[in-house]
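To the wet lab folks,

You asked to see what we're planning to order before we commit. Fair enough. Below is the target structure as tokens, and below that is the sequence we designed to fit it. If anything looks off to you, flag it before the synthesis order goes out.
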């Protein structure tokens, strides 16, 4: 079996981007918690305390959470394609397109967050991911 590792570069790039979003989330959240005078209460219902923070602070955390949802499918299909020896060419281009679009989505959600435009970016990103999944399915089946 020939493993095609080129597609692992966009995988690692998205993992690194997730780390950037993690750092950005805490770099904005911790000062906002202090400024709001919030005392962390383990008895408070989940999310109620963070809901008191300004929206521009919450957007980073929302995006960080989003990077743990759909991208899990990307990681699975990219690793599958690598193991199938199909992690180059069009699949590699689609993988990089997915990563770039996820970064654009992150920046847009974290800075502007106009939902209609964010949804359009997400939809295009989803279509790229679906294309990768279909291409892997065509090889496997």
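Sequence we intend to order:
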């Amino acid at each position: 079996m020939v493993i095609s590792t080129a597609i692992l570069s966009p995988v690692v790039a998205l993992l690194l981007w997730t780390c950037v979003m993690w750092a950005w989330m805490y770099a904005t959240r911790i000062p906002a918690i202090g400024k709001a005078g919030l005392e962390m209460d383990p008895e408070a219902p989940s999310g109620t305390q963070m809901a008191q923070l300004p929206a521009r602070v919450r957007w980073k955390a929302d995006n960080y959470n989003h990077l743990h949802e759909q991208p899990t499918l990307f990681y699975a299909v990219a690793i599958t394609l690598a193991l199938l020896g199909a992690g180059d060419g069009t699949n590699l281009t689609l993988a990089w397109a997915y990563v770039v679009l996820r970064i654009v989505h992150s920046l847009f959600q974290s800075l502007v967050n106009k939902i209609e435009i964010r949804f359009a970016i997400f939809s295009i990103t989803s279509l790229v991911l679906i294309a990768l999944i279909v291409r892997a399915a065509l090889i496997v089946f």
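Structural context that might help your review: DSSP finds five helices and no strands in the chain. Residues 42 and 49 are 10 Å apart (CA to CA).

Thanks,
Computational group
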